[in-house]
Specification:
Elements (H helix, E strand, L loop, with lengths): L2 H11 L10 E4 L12 H14 L7 E3 L4 E2 L7 E2 H12 L2 E6 L4 H14 L8 E8 L8 H15 L6 E6 H5 L4 H5 L1 E2 L2 E2 L6 E5 L9 H23 L5 E7 L16 H17 L4 E3 L11 E2 L5 E2 L24
Parallel strand pairs: 1-2, 1-12, 2-5, 5-6, 6-7, 7-10, 10-11, 11-12
Antiparallel strand pairs: 3-4, 8-9, 13-14
Helix pairs in contact: 1-8, 2-3, 8-9
Length: 327
């Protein structure tokens, strides 16, 4: 781990202020191990486990990926309508995802959310994210931007923050610039988006565990630095939208070896360091999902994604989710 990288990231996040500890949250899936949809009661049980054993004195924030999970077209999961009552009952906040890779997908998600999201959930929904790594999947930024703006207009009376989430390199290399600036076709036609989640994984970079934290910190430094340079005086709220490491039973990815021992090490070095720097982190993911299909890496190779949870699918933690310096 390089001290210069940590210092640079700390200054990028908060150049003038003393850093407060970041908040830890978890990504939660929509399905049970048998592939059936989670009910409100299932989410309540998830939240009980996270608040009692998720680390940092009790986790109270999660994020999702879609209003309706369509991984199994014959068994759609109504995520928003199931999770929001559970979150409200348990005092959790949710960053609620809307699928937006196509106009049709976004329109469908928007219509469904409009029937669920009422002012009763104003304090429960921390933010909406429109699209999940859409730019990574080669959706054009100027195609995605109007959908984010539309969601901000449609739901902004209830939800204070509306933005998007993408891979760190799409922020660092300029692909996301139109979203940050509101500038498409050479003109800033709308205010830039000021809520951004940046995903970064030492594992998906194929890094040995000994270099995984340094890679993770450096990737986020590049992304956050570029966002803030571009935003100028505009205040942008930036979080680490995903990071993690697969445990025992997962796939190796080049030099990145899947094991619960390495998962724990990355949590206690990478995740805990980021939290200490004042950055909010969402760990991918809360619970193992044994029903998930294989995931495709940048290289096109397929990798197991069923063993990424900090908890087993029975809601038992794999290791102590405590940061060495602050619990």
């Amino acid at each position: 781990m390089h001290y210069s990288t940590i210092l640079s990231l700390a200054l990028a996040v908060s150049p003038l202020a003393v850093l407060a500890r970041g908040n830890l949250g978890y990504a939660v899936g929509a399905r049970k191990p048998d592939s059936n949809c989670k009910s409100t009661a299932d989410y309540e049980a998830d939240f009980d486990a996270l608040s009692s054993k998720g680390g940092l004195g009790g986790v109270k924030r999660v994020r999702t990926y879609a209003v309706v999970d369509n991984a199994l077209p014959d068994n759609l999961c109504q995520v928003a309508s199931a999770i929001l009552p559970a979150a409200k009952a348990k005092g959790f906040q949710v960053i609620l995802g809307l699928s937006a890779d196509t106009g049709a997908a976004y329109d469908s998600e928007k219509a469904t959310l409009a029937t669920v999201l009422t002012s009763d959930y104003a304090s429960t929904v921390y933010a909406l994210t429109v699209g999940s790594e859409s730019l990574y999947r080669e959706v054009d930024a100027c195609e995605l931007l109007p959908r984010i703006v539309d969601a901000r207009s449609t739901f902004g009376n209830i939800v204070k923050r509306v933005g998007t989430v993408d891979s760190w390199n799409k922020f660092a290399d300029g692909t996301a610039d139109p979203i940050i600036t509101g500038n498409c076709d050479g003109k800033a036609s709308v205010p830039g988006i000021t809520f951004l989640l940046v995903n970064a994984f030492g594992y998906w970079q194929g890094q040995d565990i000994n270099n995984a934290t340094a890679t993770y910190l450096d990737d986020l430094q590049q992304a956050i630095g570029h966002i803030q340079d571009l935003a100028g005086l505009n205040t942008v709220e930036i979080m680490n939208g995903e990071t993690g490491w697969p445990g025992d039973g997962g796939s190796n990815h080049y030099s990145a070896v899947a094991s619960t021992k390495n998962e724990e090490r990355f949590f206690k070095t990478g995740v805990c360091t980021m939290l200490a720097l004042g950055v909010d982190v969402f760990y991918f993911e809360a619970f193992d999902e044994s029903q998930k299909p294989l995931s495709k890496a940048d290289t096109g190779e397929l990798r197991d994604e069923t063993h990424w949870g900090a908890f087993y699918d029975n809601r038992t933690p794999k290791f102590s989710l405590v940061c060495p310096t602050f619990g």
